[in-house]
Amino acid sequence: MEAKVYSTAAKEVGTIELSDSVFNREVSTGSIYHAVNNELANRRVGTACTKVRSEVNYSNTKPFKQKGTGNARRGDKKSPILVGGGTIFGPKPRDYSYTLPKKVKRLAMKSLLSLSVQEDRLRIVQDFTNENGKTKDLAQIVKAFTEEGKRLVIVMKDDDAMLRRAAKNIPYVRVLAYDKLSAKELLYAKTVLMLEGAARNLNEFFAE
Description:
Blueprint: E1 2-6, E2 12-17, H1 20-23, H2 29-43, H3 102-118, E3 122-125, H4 135-145, E4 152-156, H5 161-167, E5 173-177, H6 183-188, E6 191-195, H7 196-205
Parallel strand pairs: 1-3, 3-6, 4-5, 4-6
Antiparallel strand pairs: 1-2
Helix pairs in contact: 2-3, 4-5
């Protein structure tokens, strides 16, 4: 398929050939669902922790005598049904991360790229960089493609430290390398700004 190429001022300057197997394929919603869930699970810290009755710092004495009170017998004040007692089946520190099959992840990324084309959210822009790392310069380019506050993802052809630095102070902009895409960011982005070099790299990276 053929796509338009824009300048950093959002003016059409040419076209580029994109692989149909990457940018124009049937969207697999199932793989997208699994890829986003996997990313969110892998980000979870999993530090939630509660104390069971054996861990509560409380008295071990009986709250009242065994017989003659008319109350149910009670061994100590750490019972889960008493205020200040332990917790039953509460969360403990755990690792929520898991590995997603490589084929599923690749299918999800190709589906998300195709979805961005179908929804007219993808913009191919001429390769650019930010030599001084200033946010002001990058903000002008971003403003030409989207409204302020609308989520935008920039896909780089390689890791550009200065471009990442310039984007740090724009809260609604995310910068990704073409070989380290994020399913969550691509799914929720209102605009995907892809460098021309990154588009060519993706044609080969996800080639079948």
